[in-house]
Amino acid sequence: MPAERGNSTRAAGGAATQRGRIGLALAGGGFLAAAWELGALCALSEAIEGFEPTRLDAYVGVSAGSFVAAGLANAVTPHRMVQLFVEGDRAGETLEPARLLRPAVDEWWKALRALPRGLRRAMHGAWEAGARHPQTALWQGMDELLRVLPDGLVDGQPGEQALARLFRESGRTNDFRRTRAPLRIVATDIDSGMPVAFGSKGYEHVPISRAAIASSAVPGLFPPVRIGSHRYVDGALNKTLHASLALDAGAGLVFCLNPLGPFDGSRPGARRVARSRAAAVLAQTMRATTRPRMTRRAEEHRVTHPDADIVLFEPRRDDAEIFFANIFSVASRRHLCEHAYRTTRADLLERREELAPMLQRHGLSLDEAVLRTETPRLVREPSPAHVRALETRASLALRRLSCTLHELERSLAIARASAGSPPTAPDAVAAA
Q1: Rounded distance, CA 155 to CA 170, Å?
Q2: Within 10 A of 322 (CB to CB), how many other CB atoms are there?
Q3: How far is Cα 408 from Cα 111, in angstroms, rounded to an integer?
Q4: Of 115, 129, 274, 312, which residue is 20 to 30 A from 373 by alpha carbon distance?
Q5: Whole-number percent of the chain with pLDDT over 90
Q6: What is the pTM of this model?
C-alpha cells in the first residue's frame, strides 16, 4: 500500500483525494459474487469502527456489484440486502434471483422468424461449398446458422423492474443526480468497446436500475441493453473494479471487493479445474485473464493517486467454496454469503497489523474485540414454510420455462417445415 505522502493529491480530471473520504468499488461475477460481497460487507461494517457502508463518499459498481453499490447508495444496509437477496424477504420486498430472470422470449422469437431464411442460406452455402470443397460444407452451413442465434438467453427486465420498485421507496431514488454520494455504474458500449460510467457527466440522466441491468448484461447470456442510440453489455470487459472512479471522486481510502480471483488447485488433494466441466475451465480462464489487468491498474493508481490508500478483499486463492458453487442454487447462495462473512472476519484479524495504520489515517479503526469473539451466524436458517414457498416459486418458474421451450420447439418445427427441402441449384435458392 502507498506510504503516507501528505493530505491530498489531485489526478487529471478528478477531485483531490482526501483523508477521511471513503470509497467502495465492487466487482461482478453473477449472483454468487453478489452474495459473497454482501457477506464481506457485513463483516467489514461490524468489525471496522467508523465504516458505515451506507454513508460512504463514493460508490462504484460493475456487473453484479452494481446492484449492491446501488443499494448501498440508497441507504439499504448490507444486512438488509442479505435479507432481500440471499434469504428472500418474507414481507414481499425481495431481490431473489429466481424473480429477477425470465427467458428472453422476444429474442428467441426474433431468431425464429429469421430461421427459415437462415436455413435456406445455410443449405445454399453448404451446397456451393460441397460442390467445390466437401470438407467445408458442414462448417459453411453452421456459420450461416450461427447468424440467426438470439442475442441473449435471459431477459434482465424483471431485475430492472425490481430495482426500480425498491428505489421508489421513501428515502431512496432511481436518479443518479439525487444520491447522497456519487454513484458510478460501469457498462461497456458494445459498438466502441469502451467503458461508460453511468452517473458521470453526460450519463447521469439514465435511471440507476437501467444502468445496473446494462452493467450486468453478460454477452451471450443477456441481450445488450439499449440506452438511447447505444447498446451496452457487462462493465467488466475492460476492467474488473474501476476503482479509479472512486479515487477521482475524491476518496482517500477505497475498499475494493473482488470475488473473482483465480483459483489455485495445484496443491495436493485440491479439486482440479482441468478435471471439471467446461464452465469451470472458462471461469478460470476469465479470472486468470483479468488478474494481470487488475495488478497493472493498482500500480497505476499508486502513481496517479500517491496519497490514496486502496485495500483489497477477495477469496483466498485456494478457496474452492466460491469457485465450484452452483450459481443457481439457493443453498449455495446462502452458504457462500455466510462463508464470506466468516472468512472476511478472519482475514481482518490476520491482516490487522497491515490494516490498522492505514485505517487510522482515515479515521477508522479495527475492533479486535469483535473479531476475537465467536462469530455469530449471519444468514438465518429458512423456516419449513419458507422452504416450501421457495420450492413452489422454483417449480412455477421451471413450469413457465418448460412451456416457453415447448412453444419454441413447436415454432422451430414449423420454421423448418417452411424452409422446404434442400435446393438442387443456386437458382432454386434465389427463387425462394
Answers
A1: 28
A2: 24
A3: 10
A4: 312
A5: 44
A6: 0.78
